[in-house]
Amino acid sequence: MPEPAPPKRPNAVGEKTTARISGSWQSHINLSSFLALLVTVAFVLPSMGLGRDDIKLYGDVAFSLLLVSGVAIAWRRGKLFVLSCGVGSAALAARWMNWFTPTPALHLWSVWWSLAAIVLIALVLLSQVFRDGPVTPARIEGAIAVYLLFGMGWAQCYDITEFLHPGSFSTATGHFQLSDWFYYSYVTLSTVGYGDITAVHPVARTLSVTEALTGQLYLAVLIARLVAMEVVSWQSRANRD
């Protein structure tokens, strides 16, 4: 009698490829959502002409969604994901506590924790952007998101500086709100510098100069890295052919 055929072994390579494609697709969706929220918080809300209370409410809601989306990007990174969840949760708690019971101390803690969460999310994205591999649309989206996070992070720094040292910045209106910090930060990051808001305190000036240098150096390093990865990818395909 012929021996029964052995049971088929699962195609490990096929399963691994499918899981990798599925994970990449999910990560790409998370990253696209995160980038859309980032643009909304940084540019759309400040340009809507809302009142001070309205923009604070909408800004807090959008920033909360931004933090959740940003933390979700690190969900496959183990300890980094746990750390991101902890910092993000603290930032959310401080922000909403400051909304319901606003005090100067809670405002300062809210900004500090928000800054820590932004820095952590930027580090997660940078590890993905500068890792080895071909240049993909997801990598480009991540690079853009990091650049926008730079501006958002420095906006928190300017808010902290003005809070600790009133009068650190000079402006014609004489008062600042959240949209002003975003405006000044991105103008400085892109080295446009219209001059309607001026850094006066030494700490404010140092932060402004550092942001301008970071914006230019990041673009230079990013372009060099992407070009190098694309050249390596071309060489690998040529060698296989």
Task: Give the arrangement of secondary structure elements.
Elements: H1 12-44, H2 52-72, H3 79-100, H4 104-129, H5 137-164, E1 169-171, H6 178-189, E2 197-199, H7 202-240
Antiparallel strand pairs: 1-2
Helix pairs in contact: 1-2, 1-5, 2-3, 3-4, 4-5, 5-6, 5-7
> Count of helices?
7
Query: How many strands?
Result: 2
**Regions with little confidence, pLDDT below 50 for 5+ residues:** 6-26
Largest sheet: 2 strands, antiparallel
| Backbone shape | globular
Can you write the helix and strand succession as a string? HHHHHEHEH
Count of domain modules: 1
Oligomer: single chain
Secondary-structure-based class equals: mainly alpha
- Mean pLDDT across the residues is 80
Query: In whole angstroms, how far apart are the ends?
Result: 48 Å
Name the beta content range. Answer: under 5%
In the sheet with the most strands, the strands line up as 1-2
Helix content: over 70%
Rg over CA atoms, rounded to whole Å, is 22 Å
Provide an overview of this structure:
The longest helix is centred in the C-terminal third of the chain and has 39 residues. Strands 1-2 form a two-stranded antiparallel ribbon. It has one domain. With 241 residues, the protein is mainly alpha-helical.
Summarize this entry quickly.
The chain has 241 residues and is mainly alpha-helical. Helices cover 75% and strands 2% of the residues. It has seven helices and two strands.
Kindly list the characteristics that best describe this protein.
241 residues; mainly alpha; two-stranded antiparallel ribbon; globular
